[in-house]
Design a protein that fits this description.
0% strand
Amino acid sequence: MSDIKTKVQGLDPNVRARNLTQLVKDTGNIYEVMAIITKRAKQLAVDIKHELHQKLEEFAVSSDTIEEINENKEQIEISKFYERLPNPAIIATEEYLDGEIYYRYQDKKKRKPLNSGE
């Protein structure tokens, strides 16, 4: 997971318009591209959430009283760091455009490109 955090440090967290022809150059279908990116974004979201909860559990105090609420500066900094990370969909889109996502079809028959004459 740490490699994802270091990789996304340079990413722009803002959403921006994308060139559709560049997105569909491998699959030929925008819906397939969106399905691939969506699945990867869900994986990233689960991984990031799991890691954040693991780090915040270190600061959890097991006491029965709710009266004492103390703020830990390290805990706040960790939370702010994860809030500043780009959205998992943005990370997944960048991974797709950089060719870092491996995908395959579950069915055994080969898919034909949409623009083939057959």
